[in-house]
Amino acid sequence: MTLLRRTALATGLACGVFLAVGAAHAQADKFPSKPIRLIVPYGTGSGTDNSARYFTQKIAEKTGWTFLIENKPGGNGFIGLGEVQRSPADGYTMVYTGGTTHGVNSALFKKLPYDPLKDFTPVTPGVFSPMVLLAKPDLNVKTAAELVDVIRKNPGKMAGATGSSFQIMAMEVFKHENKLETTNVPYKGSAQSMTDLLGGHVDFTLVDLAAGLPQIEAGRLKALAVTSPARVDVLPDVPTMAQAGLPDIRLAGWAALFVKAGTPEPVVATLQKAFNSYFQSPDYKAYVGRTGGYYTAMSTPEMMSFITTEIERSKAALQRAGIQPE
Q1: DSSP letter string over 38-94?
Q2: pLDDT for position 147
Q3: Which domains are present in the chain?
Q4: Which of 43, 53, 202, 223 has the smallest number of Cβ neighbours within 10 A?
Q5: In this predicted structure, what is the pLDDT of residue 1?
Q6: Is the pTM value of this prediction over 0.85?
């Protein structure tokens, strides 16, 4: 190859890189120019759904952006994530999901239709939330120890509701640590499981506090214990698992915003700036505080490391409980 041709090739490659970077920045400069779809892979009325609708409204008011919330429940989150996988990597389709799809599913299934680390780019965490132990009203139990005693006296006869893979893991850990024999009854989301718990169709559940709190505050259900290291401000009279005389189970549900892998970095940065600006506001701190949750800022690399740890923790927890992946 002559010197002239090598110079021309190098110049062409440099121009190509420059144009690609320029195009990405131009896309970010005008982003968003249309509504952003936010996929929630759980049913309407779930804690994740309620939270997504709240903060997107607040961010829309602040930025002028338009968000379209689409609930795609079922399949342990597979349906909702599949919607993102089929969409362009342009930032206009996001998903609000967490511990189920990007943690526990990797421990429950030998093979997933997605890769939680390679197929999605984390934008920012949304909320972290402890779980709460609840029993159906007609059991008339007043403490977590009383519920465990009832379950032990009825081996294999009591049913626990699970509305997500994360709840399945929590339930299996709870059963293993307390040496209980119960049946898991799966639901597409926590809202449906709570309805059946109130109706007496299932006997108990471990659910994220945000989803259970409305029924607790209304007096329809009694909170027996929380899975946080310390009591939560919104339920100061409710003990932790350890304080309730049970094994010290510490589990926190979480949800975060993701886009499809390959989304231009300037677009991801634009999304991060808008969401983090609101998530760090006093209004959002007060909102998540009312549901017993909290927010912790993380960069994309920090989120990737966190998710890797969550996957490893889930696999270890289910292995200890004797649960084999399907």
Answers
A1: EEESS-TTSHHHHHHHHHHHHHHHHH---EEEEE---GGGHHHHHHHHTS-SSSSEE
A2: 97
A3: 35-128+252-320 (3.40.190.150), 130-226 (3.40.190.10)
A4: 53
A5: 53
A6: no
